[in-house]
Protein: ATP phosphoribosyltransferase
Amino acid sequence: MTQLTIAMPKGRIFEEAYEMLLEAGFNLPEEVEMSRKLMIEIPEENISFILAKPMDVPVYVEHGVADIGIAGKDVLLEQRRTVHELLDLKISECYIASAGLPNTTINEIAPRIATKYPNIAMKYYKGIGEQVEIIELNGSIELAPMIGLADRIVDIVSTGRTLKENGLVEYEHIAEVSSRLIANPVSYRMKSDRIQDLVTRLKKCVK
Ligand SMILES: Nc1ncnc2c1ncn2[C@@H]1O[C@H](COP(=O)(O)OP(=O)(O)OP(=O)(O)O)[C@@H](O)[C@H]1O
Ligand SMILES: O=P(O)(O)OC[C@H]1O[C@H](OP(=O)(O)OP(=O)(O)O)[C@H](O)[C@@H]1O
Structure:
């Protein structure tokens, strides 16, 4: 059986992805989540799992050190890497939106947009003809309008709770997000039988 390496995101997506793989019949060890191990082998399937930061999954897959990966559509839109998107797993669903303080307009010369998605934000505002200044942050994005760092944020919204609790309102819906199964293009050709089998098994578990 051809060896297959799968890059799995740690953090928020992990649990749902793990459940899906179990349901698809992959015999993942129970202690994975609790352990600090970054590589897990399933010898009977000849599969290795790499546990990666969500933003790094497409990097491993593009470079071919992982044949397959699971990545949020937000990360794929932001990084535009050379990988094949094989399947929408419909897990970790949320969306990207712009938000800000209520009743504010962005009619300045160069409104400031705080985000951890500079490419998505830039493309969006360019598309609507707004010239903006992007302020790149790594988290707690919702702070930016509250403390006067930015006029708008571009960030993930799921339940809307973070916006609400920080007194922000949503302005524009930018893109739908869910987790996707991605593949390295060379692996996809060279290991097509194994990858197709994985896709078929996972497809049956998409809710
Ligand atoms: N609130 C949310 N609800 C549902 N899915 C989300 C939410 N926030 C992010 N996601 C999805 O989960 C993915 C991983 O998010 P997670 O918060 O685990 O990692 P991260 O933001 O890269 O951060 P960290 O640096 O905290 O590891 C995102 O790329 C996105 O697709
Ligand atoms: O609409 P909600 O359900 O409130 O979810 C949205 C929040 O979830 C994510 O943050 P995360 O928890 O990953 O923290 P971060 O600020 O470190 O990115 C995202 O960046 C939002 O802040």
About this structure: Residues 139-142, 155-162 surround PRP (ligand 2) (CB under 6 Å).
